[in-house]
Amino acid sequence: MLHSHNRPVERGKVYLVGAGPGDPELITVRGLTLLRQAEVVVYDRLVHPALLNEVPATAERIYVGKTPGRHVLPQEAIQELLIDRARRNLIVVRLKGGDPFVFGRGGEEARALAQAGIPFEVVPGVTSAIAVPAYAGIPVTQRGVAGSFAVVTGHRCDLEALALDWSALARVDTLVLLMGLRRLPELVRTLQAHGRAPDTPVAVISNGTTAAQQCVLGTLADIAERAAHLSTPATVVVGEVARLADELAWFHPEPAPSPFSLHPETQPSEP
Question: What percent of the chain is modeled with pLDDT above 70?
């Protein structure tokens, strides 16, 4: 059994913990250790409810999830909340979907904590950019097929601010688009306009790594229409590796007890 003997859990500190891509069993050992000792948990929309079952009943649970057009708390307020609870000398876990530093705004929160003089620790999580394709039977790299990959946000605000080099991105072997389902028609047109062939294979995986996972295959020319019925969150994979989805499909989701629990004897906790 693994123990974090040399890594104490400290009061007055914020732990930025990656919850993984959806399947609650993909959280790290360190992340689970921290959840089980947390006094405050500030969590996002895509965090699986089963992970909240691991939090002590006495802990304060604060939901700060974001949906398109609706934020429970602005980002600045979330950062102020973390600082406030840490200054109360509490063990604070900021639980974020995927990895905190992969389009999770973890860097912004870490900077705010550093500027306020609050100690923090980053606990990386399994990012959906790699895990979701893997659960669909798609390796983002494959010898002889794809020797490079890039991960891009499909979120409008981020795209407009970053002014991405689409000519370069169109040449990457495997391109993974996160948060891009609603803008998929625009994104595939952009890739084609910068030289990516219309017959390039594409996979769109909705609710990846969960019992609700769905995978739709197509090409740049037709994927927007084929995937129009899918729901968020979704991961888009552009490149030849998408052809491997049928051959390497290993995850066949079945309806799971709701909510799933890492400890079957525990009862679900309400947000």
Answer: 87
Start-end of CATH 3.30.950.10 domains in the chain: 129-248
Helix and strand counts by DSSP (H, E) for the chain: 10, 12
> CATH homologous superfamily of domain 13-126?
Tetrapyrrole methylase, N-terminal domain (3.40.1010.10)
**What is the dotted CATH code of the domain comprising 129-248?**
3.30.950.10
What are the CA-CA distances from residue 47 to residues 20, 94, 126, 268 (Å)? 8, 11, 13, 14
Q: Is the pLDDT of residue 262 over 60?
A: no
257 Cβ contact list (under 8 Å, min separation 6): none
Active-site positions? 44, 66, 179
Say what the pLDDT of residue 264 is.
37
User: How many CB atoms lie under 10 A from the CB of residue 264?
Assistant: 8
